[in-house]
Design brief:
2 domains, six-stranded parallel sheet, 18 helices, 38% helix, single chain, 17% strand, Rossmann fold
């Protein structure tokens, strides 16, 4: 393997909670040197965040001094960690010196905070024109609502995603995971990579402005949502798809399956599998348009067939016929799935003191390259663990200076 994709790229990580730390985690997985900056008084935002894991397992409260937040253990892999008090002018000065030797800064402060601290993009661009500066916020850097605070559920609500999620006769529902956070972190990664490409060609940095609401909205608006009422469609379709039928979850004797067809040819094949060949000529079922208009009847046919099947037997029949289908897996199913294991997507969850934690795992790096390695270089490190390496080695501060800075609460 040659050197890693982002080897030699230094990233200063001023992010908190989920969306920002996950974006910088992905950068670390590509080989960037990610330096997490924590407050020397309050520490990071994740190690003391439930759910905790430690020598006695998982818990909502810390049971032992070694218990650490699972979000910290997962999102801080492969990163270095320093402490800086950015409300102290000396702390800002040290950050600026770090940024003089860095390629990327990622932050997810509320809009206006970086300007108050004197580390906004115009200020830093004037000092280091090559710097790629990525801001990830709920509503973006511009617009009348840019100042609003945001969490994942608020972004799902504001973007319209919650209006589409859940059964037609149920309430608006958020996605089961923090989808707005995780999706926006990937948009952040894409923006940073694009800006680094631009930097390599021109020597010029960019301000990458990622809005969680923008990110989610750009994904859900592939469908003509404003046309749903005219089509008689409820905004919330449950597990159905509004453009093809059948496309739903169906219960077999022992488990739930997703079964989906996208073309009339696939429908005819599914009818062969179900022993319902006569439906292929029935005008209420024969075409995609007809099936959409009779979605309840289509679902009833597939549900009746599925209910008589063993799950594995149904999967085998459907896959042999090349019908799109899948078991609905829970986390234990996924972890035990040989395919996901072969893809390197199940890794040990490693505690910085205790080592691997039995029974707990983390996701591997999801982007694969043909000629370079990816992945996280080591478990998370605790707050300030890299102070000597970064401030002493990179910035050249001696032990006396480091001691003074610690005494003054700067680091």
């Amino acid at each position: 393997m040659s050197k890693r994709i982002l080897e030699g790229v230094r990233v200063i990580d001023l992010t908190q909670f989920f969306v920002g730390p996950h974006a910088t985690l992905l950068l670390a997985g590509m080989g960037a040197e990610v330096i997490r900056v924590d407050n020397p008084v309050t520490g990071d935002t994740l190690s003391d965040s439930p759910i905790y894991a430690g020598p006695e397992g998982v818990s909502f409260e810390r049971k032992t001094p070694d218990d650490l937040g699972v979000p910290f253990l997962k999102r801080s892999r492969g990163k270095k960690a320093v402490t800086l008090n950015l409300k102290n002018p000396e702390g800002v000065r040290l950050l600026l010196e770090l940024l003089d030797q860095s390629d990327v800064l990622v932050e997810n402060f509320s809009v206006g905070v970086t300007k108050r601290l004197g580390i906004d993009f115009p200020t830093l661009q004037a000092r280091n024109p090559r710097l790629v500066y990525c801001s990830i916020t709920g509503y973006g850097q511009t617009g009348p609502d840019a100042h609003l605070k945001c969490f994942d559920a608020a972004a799902q609500a504001a973007s319209g995603l919650m209006s589409l999620t859940g059964p037609p006769d149920g309430p608006p529902t958020k996605a089961g995971s923090a989808l707005a956070d995780s999706v926006s972190s990937v948009f952040g990664l894409a923006g940073i990579l694009g800006a680094l490409f631009h930097q390599a060609r021109t020597g010029e940095g960019q301000h990458v402005d990622i809005s969680m609401v923008d990110s989610v909205f750009s994904l859900i608006y592939d469908d003509p949502l404003e046309g749903y009422p005219a089509l008689g469609l409820n905004y919330r379709q449950g597990n159905r798809a509004p453009r093809v039928s059948p496309f739903n979850s169906y219960r077999t004797k022992d488990r739930w399956l997703i079964i989906a067809t996208a073309t009339d040819a696939q429908w005819r094949t599914l009818c062969d599998v179900m022993g319902c060949e006569g439906l292929t000529e029935d005008p209420e079922f024969a075409t995609s348009s007809a099936r959409l208009g009779n979605n309840d009847a289509v679902d009833a046919v597939v549900s009746e067939w599925a209910a008589l099947q063993d799950g594995e037997s149904a999967l085998a029949k459907l896959r042999e016929a090349e019908i799109v289908c899948s078991p609905i897996n829970d986390i234990n199913d996924v972890k035990n799935w040989p395919h996901i294991q072969a893809r390197g997507m199940i890794e040990e969850l490693v505690h910085p003191v205790l080592g691997p934690l039995p029974g707990l795992n983390a996701a591997g790096f999801p982007i694969k390259f043909s000629g370079v390695e990816t992945g996280y270089d080591g478990p998370p490190v605790m707050t300030g663990a890299s102070n000597q390496e970064i401030f002493g080695g990179l910035l050249g501060l001696d032990d006396e200076s480091l001691g003074r800075l610690a005494e003054d609460g700067v680091i």
